[in-house]
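Section 5: illustrative case.
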């Protein structure tokens, strides 16, 4: 059965129906191409975000210079993010190329166009995943930078504490040196005192006459030298509370009783030869 189609003539109905289906598939392929282009644009945005993450990571690396290990790890993560983003961009570009190829192939085969669209959708999903990974790595880089800053602060605190300890140690050392000097001065003064004491003892010993054979005598001086004197003119007291006073019976020395002095003896009293008792005051012998 023929159907009139204008100047193009007539054609078979079954064949026309097949051409219409292919035309619809071509339209679908064009739609998939647009979707693939959108995916490519999104992937490019992901790549831009990844580049921004890399820049932020570089800044974090600079701020975290005091913590080389953490900064190096952040730099490695940022590089990995950049690589993933570049891979995503490449995948997106490949998807776009595949979509264009799918469009060309769609003219011949609707089935190939559908497969290409599916591939483009998978690539877009991969690009989205890569963008998410880049965001995660940027967050990890920020955390590493924060940790590095904390480490730097802790290091500064430790350095301050060490400086304080060194100052205290220096002060203690100075105090110890001062104490040692004082101790040395005290020891020197003590040695000097000991020497002077020994000299004083020798001098004192020189002023004391020998005690041998001088029992019962008293130490006296004439203003120049010391000597032992004999106790005369009275003996020890006797009885409880010294009820009896005694005196010797012989005077064996020269005695002068001053004018303003009274004296008393219990007799008899004998003045030995060559000795004299001079009374200027009063002397009573009972």
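Designed sequence:
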């Amino acid at each position: 059965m023929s159907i009139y189609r204008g100047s193009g003539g007539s054609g078979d109905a079954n064949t026309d129906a097949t051409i219409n289906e292919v035309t619809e598939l071509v339209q679908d392929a064009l739609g998939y191409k647009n979707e693939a282009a959108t995916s490519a644009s999104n992937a490019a945005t992901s790549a831009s975000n990844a580049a921004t993450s890399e820049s932020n990571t570089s800044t974090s690396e600079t701020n975290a210079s005091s913590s080389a290990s953490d900064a190096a790890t952040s730099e490695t993560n940022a590089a990995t993010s950049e690589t993933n983003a570049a891979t995503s961009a490449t995948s997106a570009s490949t998807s776009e190329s595949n979509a264009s190829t799918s469009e060309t192939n769609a003219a011949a085969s609707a089935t190939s166009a559908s497969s290409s669209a599916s591939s483009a959708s998978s690539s877009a999903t991969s690009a989205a995943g890569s963008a998410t990974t880049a965001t995660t790595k940027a967050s990890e880089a920020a955390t590493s930078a924060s940790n590095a800053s904390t480490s730097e602060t802790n290091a500064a605190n430790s350095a301050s504490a060490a400086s304080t300890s060194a100052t205290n140690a220096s002060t203690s050392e100075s105090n110890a040196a001062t104490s040692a000097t004082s101790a040395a001065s005290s020891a020197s003064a003590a040695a000097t005192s000991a020497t002077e004491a020994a000299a004083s003892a020798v001098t004192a010993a020189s002023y004391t006459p020998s005690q041998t054979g001088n029992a019962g005598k008293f130490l006296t001086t004439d203003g120049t030298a010391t000597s032992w004197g004999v106790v005369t003119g009275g003996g020890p007291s006797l009885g409880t509370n010294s009820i009896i006073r005694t005196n010797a019976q012989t005077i064996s020395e020269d005695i002068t009783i001053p004018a303003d002095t009274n004296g008393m003896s219990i007799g008899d009293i004998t003045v030995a030869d060559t000795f004299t008792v001079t009374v200027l005051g009063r002397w009573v012998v009972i």
